[in-house]
Amino acid sequence: MKRLINIILLSLFFSINTQAQPPAQTVPAFNFYRFDKSTLTNKDLPTGKMLFFFFFDPSCEHCQQAMSNLNKDFQQYAKAAVYLISVDDPKVITAFINKYAPSLKNKKNVTLLVDTKNEFLEKFKPLRYPSMFLYSSKNVLLDYEDNENSMFRFLKYLKQA
Fold first, then answer.
1. Which of 75, 100, 105, 153 is deepest in the core (most CB within 10 A)?
2. What is the pTM of this model?
3. Residue 153 burial by CB count (10 A; 0-12/13-18/19+): exposed, middle or buried?
4. Burial of 111 from C-beta contacts in 10 A (0-12 / 13-18 / 19+)
5. Strand pairing of 39-41 and 31-33?
6. H helices then E strands: how many in the chain?
C-alpha cells in the first residue's frame, strides 16, 4: 500500500513539476537514510569530489536501463562520490542493484540511500525517472539528465576530475 501511495504521489509531482523550476542548481540541504538507518545529510558530503546523484524507481524500465549503463561505465565514475537514491524499501533496492548493477555493490564511492520523507522531489526538483545529477566539487550543477541513453554526457566532466 505504501508503494502505491508513493507511486501516486510521485506521478502527481512529476506531472505538476514538468512546468516547474529547473533541477536544483546547487546541492540542497537534505536528510536521506543509509540501509543501517543512519542519516546522510548534505553536510556529510565529501569535499573536493564531484557528486553524482541517481534517483530511481526499481520498477521503472528506464531506470533499469540507466542503472545498467552506470554499471557498464562505472570505471568512469571512480573519482566521484555516487549516491543511489530511491523511496523504495531497502530490500527492493538491493534486489534492483543485484540485478542491474552488481559491480556497484561494495564500491567505496557508492552509497545506497532511502528517501523515506520524499525530500528528493521537493529539493532536487527532478523532472522524471530516472533523474541523474552531476555536481562539481563546489556543489554546483554541471549536468542533469533523465534520459538513460544520454548518460554519456556526464563522461566529459568525469574525465576532467
1. 100
2. 0.88
3. middle
4. middle
5. antiparallel
6. 5, 7
| Chain segment 12-56, per-residue pLDDT in tens | 455 544 455 799 999 999 999 999 999 999 999 999 999 999 999
Cα separation, 117 vs 109, in Å, equals: 24
Domain ranges of the chain: 2-158
Task: For residues 111 and 128, give the distance between their C-alpha atoms in angstroms, rounded to a whole number.
Answer: 21
Question: How many whole angstroms separate alpha carbon 63 and alpha carbon 61?
Answer: 5
**Hey, what's the cell of 71?**
554499471
User: Which CATH class, in words, describes the domain spanning 2-158?
Assistant: alpha beta
Residue (of 158, 134, 149, 152) closest to 64 by Cα position: 149
- The secondary element (H helix, E strand) that includes residue 69 is helix 61-72
Residue 119 DSSP class: H
Long-range contacts of 150-155 (CB under 8 A, 24+ apart): 151/66, 151/69, 151/70, 151/73, 154/52, 154/76, 154/77, 155/73, 155/76
What residues are paired with 71 via a beta bridge?
A: none
